[in-house]
C-alpha cells in the first residue's frame, strides 16, 4: 500500500476543490494533493456548454468549460498535484484518507488538513416514488447532459422533463437544439425551481410548455419509455386523479433536486445539517472536526458557480492557516437557527467577530421582506426559493450583531412573488 | 368423482354465487382437469372462478380461458432481431426458461452425460420472477399451508440444501433467521398452536415471550413487540446471483445456454415431444422440461397439453439504503392473523448485499408483463412495515420494483410429466417459496426424467464448484491490493455508490453479461443511491468496447431497450421526421 503524508488533501477537483487548492498554494502550502474520481478535473463544468458562468467572479460571460479551464490552468501553473480516476473510499476524523486508483493501487494519505469538495448528486426517481415500469429512457438531467455534451449521444427524441431546476431547463433547450422534441417541462410547484433567466432563455424562447402544479404519476413502456402520465396536483402536492393525462414520449428527464454527497463526511463522523444535507460549518468553513473543511455543493447547493469558487477560496485559505497554525479557534460561537420562511442558513455557526457572508434558502416567495438576524433587520425587495438570499457583513458591520449563543434567522414580509 | 360429476358440482357452486352466476360460462372437465370458458365482467371474477374450480375435490388442474369482456388482450412482446440460428440443433433435453428453476435443473442434468440446451427469451438469466423477489430462503411454506402440499415438502428440503449449494457455487447465503413479531394481544394465546403447526412442517421454531429477549436479539425493533416467533433456519440470498451461479456451473459442465431465443411452437409427433420451434430455428430434443415461469401454460398449450393456467400475482417491493438496514440483523415479519390466503404476507428482508427489501404485497393481474409499480402499493407497504422498524426513515427508500408470481389455480407447484404428451415435463406454478425449493425441485425433476426413460450416465468430468467473481467492495484491503496488482482495472472505481470497479464490469461481460441490467445484477453497479447517474455513461462505453458493438446498440435489457439510440446531430439531419 502506498503511504504518504500531505499538508492538505482536497477531495474533489471541481470548482470548489480547485479554488481551495489554488488558494492554499498561494498562501504558501506546498504539499497539496487533489483527489478526483473522474478522469479529468473540473467537476460538472466541462459538460455545461451553455453560457452564464463567471458574470460575478470574472465580470465576463463564460461557458462552463471556459470558466473552469482558467482554474485548471492555474492549478497546473502552480504545480498542484492532482490524482485523477482516484476514488476516496474512507476518511477518518484524524485525517487519514484511503483511496484507490489503477496506478497506485490502494493509497493512504495522512493529511494535516482536509478540504471536502465532493459536490452533489441528483435526486432519482426512487426518491420521488414515481410508479410504473422501469424501461430504458429514464435519466437524470445531469446524466443526460454528460451523455450529450461529453459523450456525444442522444438518449431519446421525444422528451418530457420532470422538474424545472436549472439543469432541467438548460437540458430542455439542449434537446430542442439537437432536434429532439420536448413535450413539456412538468413542475409540481406553482413557480419554476430554476433561475428566472433560465425560464425565459430556455423555455419561453423555444416555446416549450411549462406545466406548473403538475407532476408525473406513472411511467409506461416495457423495454423503452412509451409514455408518461401527468396530473395536476392539489395544495398538498397530491395528484388529482381526474386531471390525469398521457403524454407519449421516449424519454423522461428528471431535474428534481440535488443532494450534497456526504457519505465520506459521515464515515468521519462529521456533523451534518439536516436542512442542507451538508456538514455544519463555521466562519472559516471548518466542519465539526478540527482541520476538516467543506466548500461548494457538498456543503449546500449553490445557485452559481461563482459563489462555489468563493466558498472554495475561503476554505482553502482556512485550511492553509490551519496547517500554518494561524487559524484561531472561535472564541465565541453563535449558532444560527432557521426561523420563519428560512429553510437553511450557511454557515450554521459564526463568531460574530469576523466579516462573514450568510447564505439563506427560503421556503416560499415573499416581497417587501425584512431579513431578521437577532437584533438586526435587513430589508430586501423579493425573496424566492430558487435564489439564495446572500447577506454579507463586511468590515465592522458584524459588531452590531448581538452576541448570544443562539440567534434565529427569519424572513418576514408579504406572501407572494 | 367422474369428470361429469366434477363439472356438475362446480356449476352448482357457481350458481350459488351472486356475481359469478350471472356470467355466461362453459364448464367442462376432462381427466380431472377443469376447463373454464366464457366471459367475465372483471379480472377478479376470472381469478375467483379459477380458485373455485381448483378447490373442488378430485380436481388435478384448472385451465381457465375466461376473459373479461372489456379487457383488451395484451399484445405480446416480441424481441427477435435476426441473430445467429440454432436451426437443426439436436439435444437430449431442452429446458425452457433460465430462471432459478431452469438453471437448477440444467445444473443437475450436467452431472450426467446428456446434451442439454436451455432456451431463454430474455437477454440474460433470472430476468423473470427470479430477479424480482426479496431473496428469502423460506424455512417452510407457512403455518396456514397444508404440510402435505408439494410446495411445503420441497421448501423444507430445498432450504436444507442451501448451505452445501452456496459453498459449491460461491453465492451469498446467510441463515439469518426470521423473527415474526407479535404486536396484537389476541394472538398471544395462539402461539402454542402456531408452534405445533410449524412443527408439522418439520421446521424448528422458538417462541419468545420475554420482551427483553426480543430487544436483546433485535434492539431497534418496534417497542410494540409483545412476543416473537423465531425461525432460525430462514435464510437470505440473492435469487439472481444463485441463478447466475447455477447457470455458470451448468455451462462449465457442458450445458448450452441459448439466450434471446423464444419458443414459438412445440413439435409433437404421435403424442410425443419432437422438438421446439424457436424464433432462431428448430431444436430437436427427446425431452422437454417446461420451466417457463409465467409462460409455462403457453408452452404446455403449444404442445397441446392443457393442464393448468398461470394467473400472474403481482408483488411490489421497496428497497431501502443499506445504511439503515444494517441496524437490523434478522428478517422480520409481522405475526398476524391472515386475511389473504394466497400470500405469506411479505416482510422486511435484510438482503445479503445489505439493502433492506420490504414486501411483497399481492395483487392478481391479467397481464404477464405487468411489472409496473403503483403509488398505492408503495404506500400500503410503507404503512404496513414501517411500524416494525422505527429506525428506517422514508427518505431511505431507494426505489420500488415489482415481480409476478407464476401461480396456478391449485396454488401448489405443478411438477409432473404431462398426462397428454409424452416426454414433456411441466415444472410450473413455482410461486413462493420457489427460491428455497429450487434445489429440491431440480432433484425431483431429475427423478421424473429418469423414470420417463432418460438415460443418465454419470459425467466423469462434472465439476460441482464455481467461483464467484471478485467483489472489490467486500474484500479486505490486502486482497484488494493483490487484485489490483494482477489487473489494474480493479483499481478503477466506476460505480461510486457501491464501489464497483471496471475490473468487475469487464469480468461480468466475460461471464456473459451483454446489457446494462446484466452488469447491474452481477456487480451492483447502478443499484446504489444515485441509481446509475454517474456510472451509466462509463458502463455503456465498456459494454460497447468489450462486445465490439456501436454505443447506439448498447441496451438496458435486450433489443428495443437501446439506451443511447442516436449519435448527436443525427436528429437534426433527419429534420422533422420525428413528428
Number of DSSP E strands of chain B = 27
CATH superfamily of the domain at 472-553 in chain B: BFD-like [2Fe-2S]-binding domain
Q: What kind of oligomer do you see?
A: heterodimer
How much β-strand is present in the residues of chain B?
15-25%
Number of helices of chain A: 8
Q: How would you characterize this protein structure?
A:
The complex is a heterodimer of chains A (417) and B (579). Chain A has helices at residues 15-26, 64-77, 125-128, 141-151, 166-177, 196-203, 263-267, 305-323; strands at residues 2-11, 32-35, 51-53, 62-63, 81-83, 87-91, 96-101, 105-116, 120-122, 131-132, 138-140, 153-154, 158-162, 181-187, 210-212, 214-220, 227-232, 245-248, 251-254, 258-260, 292-294, 334-338, 342-346, 349-350, 356-362, 366-373, 376-383, 389-393, 406-415. Chain A has 417 residues and is of the alpha/beta class. Chain A folds into three domains: 2-121 and 259-323, FAD/NAD(P)-binding domain; 124-256, FAD/NAD(P)-binding domain; 334-415, Immunoglobulin-like. In chain A, β14 (181-187), α6 and β15 (210-212) form a beta-alpha-beta unit. In chain A, α1 (15-26) packs parallel to α2 (64-77). Chain B is α/β, with parallel strands linked by helices and 579 residues long. Among the domains of chain B are: 3-68, Histidine-containing Protein, Chain: A, CATH 3.30.1340.30; 472-553, Arc Repressor Mutant, subunit A, CATH 1.10.10.1100. Helices cover 30% and strands 23% of the residues of chain B. Chain B contains 16 helices and 27 strands. In chain B, the strands form six sheets. In chain B, strands 5, 6, 13, 14, 15, 16, 23 and 24 form an eight-stranded mixed sheet that branches. In chain B, a hairpin with a 2-residue loop joins β15 (272-278) and β16 (281-290). In chain B, α3 (100-109) packs parallel to α7, α3 (100-109) crosses α11 (434-451) and α4 (150-169) crosses α11 (434-451). The radius of gyration of chain B is 24 Å and the shape is globular. The model of chain B has no long low-confidence stretch (mean pLDDT 94). Chains A and B meet through β7, α3, β10, α4 and β12 of A and β22, α12, α15, β27 and α16 of B. β12 (153-154) of chain A pairs antiparallel with β27 of chain B, so a sheet runs across the interface.
Amino acid at each position: 500500500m502506498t503511504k504518504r503524508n500531505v499538508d492538505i488533501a482536497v477531495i474533489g477537483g471541481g470548482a470548489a476543490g480547485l479554488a481551495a487548492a489554488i488558494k492554499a498554494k498561494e498562501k504558501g502550502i506546498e504539499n497539496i494533493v487533489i483527489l478526483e474520481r473522474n478522469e479529468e478535473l473540473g467537476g460538472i463544468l466541462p459538460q455545461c456548454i451553455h453560457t452564464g458562468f463567471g458574470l460575478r467572479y470574472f465580470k465576463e460571460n463564460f461557458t462552463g468549460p471556459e470558466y473552469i479551464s482558467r482554474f485548471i490552468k492555474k492549478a497546473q501553473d502552480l504545480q498542484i498535484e492532482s490524482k485523477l480516476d482516484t476514488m476516496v473510499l474512507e476518511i477518518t476524523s484524524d485525517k487519514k484518507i484511503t483511496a484507490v486508483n489503477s496506478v497506485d493501487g490502494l493509497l493512504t494519505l495522512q493529511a494535516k488538513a482536509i478540504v471536502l469538495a465532493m459536490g452533489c448528486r441528483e435526486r432519482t426517481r426512487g426518491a420521488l416514488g414515481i410508479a410504473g415500469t422501469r424501461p430504458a429512457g429514464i435519466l437524470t438531467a445531469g446524466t443526460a447532459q454528460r451523455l450529450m455534451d461529453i459523450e456525444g449521444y442522444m438518449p431519446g427524441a421525444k422528451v418530457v422533463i420532470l422538474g424545472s431546476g436549472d439543469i432541467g431547463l438548460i437540458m430542455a433547450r439542449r434537446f430542442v437544439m439537437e432536434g429532439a422534441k420536448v413535450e413539456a417541462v412538468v413542475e409540481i410547484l406553482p413557480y419554476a425551481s430554476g433561475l428566472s433567466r433560465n425560464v425565459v432563455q430556455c423555455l419561453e424562447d423555444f416555446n416549450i410548455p411549462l406545466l406548473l402544479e403538475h407532476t408525473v404519476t406513472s411511467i409506461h413502456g416495457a423495454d423503452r419509455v412509451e409514455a408518461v402520465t401527468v396530473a395536476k396536483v392539489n395544495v398538498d402536492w397530491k395528484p388529482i386523479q381526474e386531471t390525469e393525462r398521457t403524454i407519449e414520449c421516449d424519454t423522461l428527464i428528471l431535474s428534481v433536486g440535488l443532494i450534497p454527497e456526504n457519505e465520506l463526511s459521515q464515515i468521519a463522523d462529521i456533523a451534518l445539517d439536516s436542512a442542507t444535507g451538508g456538514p455544519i460549518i463555521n466562519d472559516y468553513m471548518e466542519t465539526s472536526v478540527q482541520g476538516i473543511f467543506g466548500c461548494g455543493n457538498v456543503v449546500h447547493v449553490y445557485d452559481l458557480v461563482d459563489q462555489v469558487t468563493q466558498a472554495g477560496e475561503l476554505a482553502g485559505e482556512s485550511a492553509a492557516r490551519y496547517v500554518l497554525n494561524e487559524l484561531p479557534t472561535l472564541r465565541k460561537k453563535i449558532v444560527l437557527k432557521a426561523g420563519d420562511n428560512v429553510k437553511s442558513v450557511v454557515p450554521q455557526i459564526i463568531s460574530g467577530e469576523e466579516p462573514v457572508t450568510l447564505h439563506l434558502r427560503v421556503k416560499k416567495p415573499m416581497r417587501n421582506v425584512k431579513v431578521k438576524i437577532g437584533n438586526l433587520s435587513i430589508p430586501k425587495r423579493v425573496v424566492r426559493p430558487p435564489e439564495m438570499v446572500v447577506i454579507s457583513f463586511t468590515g465592522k458591520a458584524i459588531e452590531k450583531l448581538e452576541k448570544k449563543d443562539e440567534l434565529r434567522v427569519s424572513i418576514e414580509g408579504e406572501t407572494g412573488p | 368423482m367422474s369428470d361429469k360429476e366434477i363439472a356438475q358440482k362446480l356449476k352448482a357452486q357457481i350458481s350459488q354465487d351472486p356475481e359469478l352466476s350471472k356470467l355466461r360460462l362453459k364448464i367442462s372437465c376432462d381427466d380431472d382437469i377443469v376447463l373454464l370458458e366464457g366471459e367475465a365482467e372483471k379480472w377478479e371474477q376470472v381469478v375467483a372462478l379459477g380458485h373455485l374450480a381448483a378447490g373442488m375435490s378430485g380436481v388435478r388442474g384448472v385451465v381457465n380461458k375466461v376473459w373479461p369482456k372489456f379487457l383488451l388482450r395484451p399484445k405480446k412482446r416480441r424481441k427477435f432481431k435476426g441473430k445467429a440460428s440454432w436451426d437443426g440443433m439436436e439435444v437430449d433435453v431442452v429446458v425452457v426458461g433460465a430462471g432459478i428453476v431452469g438453471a437448477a435443473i440444467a445444473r443437475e442434468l450436467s452431472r450426467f452425460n446428456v446434451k442439454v440446451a436451455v432456451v431463454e427469451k430474455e437477454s440474460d438469466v433470472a430476468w423473470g420472477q427470479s430477479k424480482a423477489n426479496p431473496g428469502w430462503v423460506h424455512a417452510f411454506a407457512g403455518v396456514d399451508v397444508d404440510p402435505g402440499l408439494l410446495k411445503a415438502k420441497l421448501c423444507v428440503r430445498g432450504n436444507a440444501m442451501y448451505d452445501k449449494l452456496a459453498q459449491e457455487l460461491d453465492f451469498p447465503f446467510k441463515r439469518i433467521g426470521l423473527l415474526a413479531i407479535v404486536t396484537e394481544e389476541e394472538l398471544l394465546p395462539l402461539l402454542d398452536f402456531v408452534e405445533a403447526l410449524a412443527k408439522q412442517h418439520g421446521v424448528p421454531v422458538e417462541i419468545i415471550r420475554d420482551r427483553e429477549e426480543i430487544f436483546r436479539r433485535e434492539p431497534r425493533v418496534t417497542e410494540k413487540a409483545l412476543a416473537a416467533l423465531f425461525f432460525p433456519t430462514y435464510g437470505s440470498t440473492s435469487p439472481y446471483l444463485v441463478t447466475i451461479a447455477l447457470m455458470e456451473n451448468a455451462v462449465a459442465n457442458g450445458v448450452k445456454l441459448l439466450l434471446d431465443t423464444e419458443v414459438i411452437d412445440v413439435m409433437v409427433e404421435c403424442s410425443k415431444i419432437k422438438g421446439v420451434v424457436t424464433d432462431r430455428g428448430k431444436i430437436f430434443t427427446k425431452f422437454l422440461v417446461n420451466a417457463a415461469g409465467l409462460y409455462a401454460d403457453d408452452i404446455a398449450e403449444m404442445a397441446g397439453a392443457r393442464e393448468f393456467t398461470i394467473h400472474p400475482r403481482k408483488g411490489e417491493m421497496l428497497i431501502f439504503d443499506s445504511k439503515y438496514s444494517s441496524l437490523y440483523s434478522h428478517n422480520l415479519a409481522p405475526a398476524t392473523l391472515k386475511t389473504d390466503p394466497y400470500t405469506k404476507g411479505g416482510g422486511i428482508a435484510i438482503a445479503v448485499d445489505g439493502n433492506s427489501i420490504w414486501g411483497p404485497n399481492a395483487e392478481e393481474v391479467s397481464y404477464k408483463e405487468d411489472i409496473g409499480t403503483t403509488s398505492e402499493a408503495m404506500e400500503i407497504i410503507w404503512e404496513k412495515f414501517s411500524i416494525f422498524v422505527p429506525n428506517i426513515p422514508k427518505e431511505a427508500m431507494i426505489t420500488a420494483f415489482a415481480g409476478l408470481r407464476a401461480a396456478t389455480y391449485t396454488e401448489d407447484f405443478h411438477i409432473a410429466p404431462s398426462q397428454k404428451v409424452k416426454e414433456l415435463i411441466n415444472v410450473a406454478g413455482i410461486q413462493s417459496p420457489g427460491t428455497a425449493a429450487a434445489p429440491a425441485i431440480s432433484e425431483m425433476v431429475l427423478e421424473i426424467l429418469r423414470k420417463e426413460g432418460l438415460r443418465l450416465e454419470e459425467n466423469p468430468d462434472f465439476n460441482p464448484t464455481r467461483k464467484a467473481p471478485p467483489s472489490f467492495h467486500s474484500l479486505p484491503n490486502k486482497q484488494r491490493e493483490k487484485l489490483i496488482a494482477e489487473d489494474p482495472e480493479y483499481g478503477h472505481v466506476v460505480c461510486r455508490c457501491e464501489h464497483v470497479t471496471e475490473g468487475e464490469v469487464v469480468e461480468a461481460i466475460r461471464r456473459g453479461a451483454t446489457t446494462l441490467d446484466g452488469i447491474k445484477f452481477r456487480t451492483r453497479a447502478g443499484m446504489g443511491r444515485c441509481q446509475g447517474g454517474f456510472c451509466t455513461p462509463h458502463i455503456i462505453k465498456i459494454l460497447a468496447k468489450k462486445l465490439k458493438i456501436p454505443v447506439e446498440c448498447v441496451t438496458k435489457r435486450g433489443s428495443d431497450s437501446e439506451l443511447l439510440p442516436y449519435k448527436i446531430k443525427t436528429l437534426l439531419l433527419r429534420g422533422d421526421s420525428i413528428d
